[in-house]
Amino acid sequence: MKRRPLLADPAVRARLWLALIIGLPLSLFLLYFALVFGLDDLFRRCPPACREAVYDRGQLAGAAFAGADLQSASFVGANLAGADFNGADLYFANFQGANLAGANLQKANLRGALLTEADLTDADMRGAVLTGARMQQVILGGADLRNTDLSTVFLIGANLRGAIIDETTLLTPKWRLVWEIVNGGGTGRNLAGADLREAFLAQVDFTGADLRQAQLQDTDLTGADLTDAQLDLVALHQARLDETTRIDAKWRLVWEIVNRAERGRSLAGANLSDADLTGAVLFAADLQGAALSNAVLTEADLRQADLRGADLRGATLADATLRESLLTGADLRGANLTEADLTWAVLTGLVWDESTTVADKWRLGWDIVNQGGAGADLRGRYLSFVNLSGANLAGANLAGVNLQGANLEGANLSGADLTGAVLTSARLVNADLTDTRLEGVQWEGAALEGARLPAGFQLP
Q1: In angstroms, rounded to a whole number, what is the distance separating the alpha carbons of residues 311 and 352?
Q2: Residue 39 binned pLDDT confidence (cut-offs 50, 70, 90)
Q3: pLDDT recorded at residue 33
Q4: Bridge partners of 139?
Q5: SS3 for 335-388, per residue?
Q6: How many alpha carbons lie under 13 Å from residue 20 in its C-beta half-sphere?
Q7: How many CA atoms lie within 13 A of 322 on its CB side?
Q8: Residue 335 CA to its chain's centroid (Å)
Q9: Is 44 a residue whose pLDDT tops 90?
Q10: Alpha carbons 181 and 191: distance in angstroms, whole number
Q11: d(CA 38, CA 141)
């Protein structure tokens, strides 16, 4: 009996079609994933195609990456000594802390690359593109940077000692100057007003150099020799000095003051003239008789400081805080106290003149405590927070005067007119207010312990 062909059976054909409909797409889907995830390396070799490859802490000394596509690749902490990156695309590659000593980086694309703390000693970087590269604390000793554009690179803390740079190297004037100093020395050099912030100047000889008003903030001066250097108004904030840094005692003291906040520092008689003490914390410091002429004390904290007899002629105290400071006998002629806070500062015996820049209320307070204010017409004036302790204001017209927070302890206000005056939070302990007109006075928070008030007067 002749057998019927298998495919002639409609049921078989239906099952085969179903298998093809379901199985073929599934097979193609599996084949795709096999190619992408399992066979990709057969078609994409690294190098040259190495985008986003990770070689962190790899031992790759002498590795061949010439011409490779290494965009966004990571070489953090890797040993790449002598590696060949000639013409490689290293756009945004990460070489943080990597050893690239002797590496060939000629004409490499290093735009946006992270080279922080990398060792590029003796590396060949001729013609490399470094636009936007980050090279903080990088070591460039012996690196060949000829025909290299570093004009947009921040070389903060970079060691440029021994780096090969010439007229074909595009470098900002600041970093070219730093390179010249670390390689040619700074002995006797005129660097007045130079911007040397964040530069690596360790072990540089600055003997006798003129560094007046130079900016040395965050600069590494460990082991440097600043003997006899002129350092008037030099900014030493966050500069790094150590025990091997040779610097005159006066300027080491200035460095300590601006970098080490210390309450109650003993500086009586100290020579701090022409010092940049911007922002210095001198809270409750003993500065009796200190020489501070022409010093910059902008935004300095001098609260409760003892400045009796200090020489502050020509000093800049703009925005400084002198709250409750003792200024008796201090010489502030020619000083700039713009926006300085003299709340409750003792102004008795303070020396200043028309060349002193100071707010009207502080000058008026000085006039009152030093020259007397008996019978004075002070209507509508501002004396808030002024220290008028012990002042003689007998019979003075103080109608409408703002004395908020003023210190009037022991002051003589007998017979004065305080109609409508503001005395909120003022200190009137033991003050004499007998026969004083007090209609409409604002008393909220005023301290009146021991004060002598007019007969029959009752506080509202």
Answers
A1: 11
A2: very low
A3: 53
A4: 119, 159
A5: CECCCCECCCCECCCCECCCCCECCHHHHHHHHHHHHCCCCCECCCCECCCCEC
A6: 6
A7: 29
A8: 26
A9: no
A10: 10
A11: 45
Neighbour-count burial for 46-57, b at 16+ CB within 10 Å, e otherwise: eeeebeebebee
- What's the Cα-to-Cα distance from 150 to each of 85, 172, 176, 218, 287, rounded to whole Å? 19, 8, 10, 21, 47
The token pair at 194 is 């130079």
Q: Specify the pTM.
A: 0.86
Comparing CA positions, the residue from 69, 67, 76, 61 lying closest to residue 44 is 69
Contact status, residue 128 vs residue 108, Cβ threshold 8 Å: yes
Token couple for 156: 């903060």
Report the alpha-carbon distance of residue 95 to residue 125 in Å, rounded. 15
pLDDT at 154 (0 to 100): 87
Q: What is the pLDDT of residues 326-351, one digit of tens each?
A: 999 999 999 999 999 999 999 999 99
CB 257 within 8 A of CB 237: no
Q: Residue 446: which of 400, 398, 409 has the closest Cα?
A: 409
Q: Among 281, 291, 342, 297, which Cα is nearest to 312's? A: 291
Those residues whose C-beta lies under 8 Å from the C-beta of residue 55, and which sit 6 or more positions away, are: 73, 74, 75, 78
Nearest-angstrom CA–CA distance, 301 and 254: 15
pLDDT confidence of residue 458? 83
The phi and psi torsions of 182 (rounded to 5 degrees) equal -70, -20
CB proximity list for 303: less than 8 A, separation 6 or greater: 283, 284, 321, 322, 323, 324, 325
What domains can be seen in the chain, in order of their start residue?
Answer: 263-358 (2.160.20.80), 364-460 (2.160.20.80)
Report the candidate in 444, 447, 388 with the shortest Cα–Cα distance to residue 421. Answer: 444
In a 10 Å sphere around its CB, with 0-12 CB exposed, 13-18 middle and 19+ buried, how is residue 372 labelled?
middle
The single residue listed with the structure tokens 């500069």 is 239
pLDDT in tens, 100-123: 999 999 999 999 999 999 999 999
Q: Alpha-carbon distance 212 to 275, whole Å?
A: 10
For the beta carbon of residue 188, count every other beta carbon within 10 angstroms. Answer: 13
